[in-house]
């Protein structure tokens, strides 16, 4: 099965089946440790934390190891199963839940920080709006979203949808302040060969976005 090309996903989010396929092999983002660029900003993260689209949990577990209270959600059962197994093996406490990130509205939990490494860019325009509306409910006023997404500076159309800086400002125009958007690279699993990205890893935007009161 092939991943959707990025020009198709304005109307269709990358679906669960595509992610299940990727977790059957070396998932490109699943490098067995947190992304270096995430570690660089981790001091700014405050508890409690939601890791949205947590995958097998490396960022959530890293934060738990630093003493944070963390909930990780993902809609793929296998990703959550592996995340829970890692937590047990490492003696760390994280609540990992199978949950759809486009359905955050109505959830009773509240967070001071949300981290999103590689989730926003999988969404269609409609799901993007649903996701942002749900985030507005679960993130406390003054809380921050730390978001890394494929950049429109990444050439080609393999993999997820490219996102421009302007799209980030547009998506978070109402009730949010986009504090910074900087270019970063995503580290990729060395055994992942299904797609070709820029040398040094796909180009991403890393945004820090504050929920206004
Ligand atoms: C690019 S991966 C990143 C995983 C993790 N954040 C990391 O950095 O290792 C995106 C993750 O989002 C999950 N995902 C995609 N759509 C989702 C949705 N609607 N709700 C919850 N998780 C979703 C996928 O299953 C996948 O694990």
Please state the structural category: alpha/beta
Which small molecules are bound? S-adenosylmethionine
- SS field, number of helical segments: 6
Q: What is the tally of beta strands?
A: 7
Short structural description:
By secondary structure, the protein is α/β, with parallel strands linked by helices. Helices cover 27% and strands 24% of the residues. S-adenosylmethionine (SAM) binds next to helix 3 and strand 2.
Key terms for this structure?
213 residues; alpha/beta; globular; binds S-adenosylmethionine
Can you walk me through this structure?
With 213 residues, the chain is of the alpha/beta class. 27% of the residues lie in helices and 24% in strands. The protein is built from six helices and seven strands. It has a seven-stranded mixed sheet with strand order 3-2-1-4-5-7-6, sandwiched between helices. Helix 3 links the parallel strand 1 and strand 2. The model has no long low-confidence stretch (mean pLDDT 94). The structure holds S-adenosylmethionine (SAM). S-adenosylmethionine (SAM) binds next to helix 3 and strand 2.
């Amino acid at each position: 099965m092939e991943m959707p090309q990025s020009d198709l996903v304005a109307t269709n989010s990358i679906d669960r089946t595509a992610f299940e396929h990727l977790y059957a092999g070396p998932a490109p983002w699943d490098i067995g440790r947190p992304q270096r660029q995430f570690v660089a900003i981790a001091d700014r993260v405050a508890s409690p934390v939601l890791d949205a689209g947590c995958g097998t949990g490396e960022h959530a577990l890293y934060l738990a190891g630093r003493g944070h209270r963390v909930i990780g959600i993902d809609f793929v059962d296998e990703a959550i199963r592996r995340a829970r197994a890692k937590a047990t093996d490492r003696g760390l406490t994280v609540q990992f839940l199978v949950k759809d990130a486009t359905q955050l509205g109505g959830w009773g939990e509240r967070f001071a920080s949300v981290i999103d490494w590689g989730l926003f860019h999988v969404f269609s325009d409609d799901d993007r709006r649903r996701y942002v509306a749900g985030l507005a409910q679960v993130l406390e006023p003054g809380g921050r979203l730390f978001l890394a997404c494929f950049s429109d500076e990444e050439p080609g159309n393999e993999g997820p949808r490219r996102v421009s800086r302007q799209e980030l400002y547009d998506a978070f125009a109402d009730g949010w302040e986009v504090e910074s958007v900087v270019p970063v690279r995503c580290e990729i699993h060395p055994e992942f060969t299904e797609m070709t990205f820029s040398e040094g890893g796909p180009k991403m935007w890393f945004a820090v976005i504050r929920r206004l009161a």
